[in-house]
Specification:
Length: 155
């Protein structure tokens, strides 16, 4: 009972404290190659309307700190969607350290260090074996926002 009173007492002061509050919004895009007037081809991230196997899909995760304090050690952990395959070197995010998992998010490592076990031995993980992507961001100032993103190919 004493612990409950302490928790209730602490929560009563919570609105008076300033907290970092980071929220995430994920948006999917259909990535299409568009030929430019000069003959070059650029990638455009468009609203997904009709996605079929073989298409590229981009995921952009927007984060914003709507709190009054800097958020530190922010982690964005995103699974690679079912029936897709991660596109090598497509994960990006300013001021973030990107790591990957090939075991449903249990262990993470940089791409060059990510391994899986096969026939009792460790070998480098293939893009098709990546199950999760994690962005670690040192800090997000109050009122600041940013984006992280990655691409997949639909199976």
């Amino acid at each position: 009972m004493r612990m409950i009173k302490m928790l209730v007492g602490a929560l009563a002061f919570a609105p008076l404290m300033a907290f970092a509050q980071v929220s995430l919004t994920t948006t999917a895009f259909h990535i299409v190659a568009v030929k430019q007037a000069d003959g070059s081809v650029t990638e455009e991230w468009q609203k997904p309307e009709n996605i079929v196997p073989g298409d590229l899909v981009g995921y952009r995760i927007h984060y914003v700190n709507s709190g009054k304090e800097t958020a530190t050690d922010v982690v964005v952990n995103n699974p690679v969607p079912d029936n897709t395959e991660y596109v090598v070197n497509s994960a990006a995010g300013m001021n973030s350290q990107i790591t990957y998992s090939a075991d449903q998010g249990k262990k993470f490592a940089r791409a060059a260090e990510l391994t899986v076990e096969e026939n009792g031995a460790q070998r480098p993980a293939k893009a098709s074996e990546i199950t999760h992507i994690r962005w670690s961001i040192n800090s997000v100032a109050a009122g600041s926002s940013g984006d992280v993103e990655f691409k997949v190919r639909v199976k």
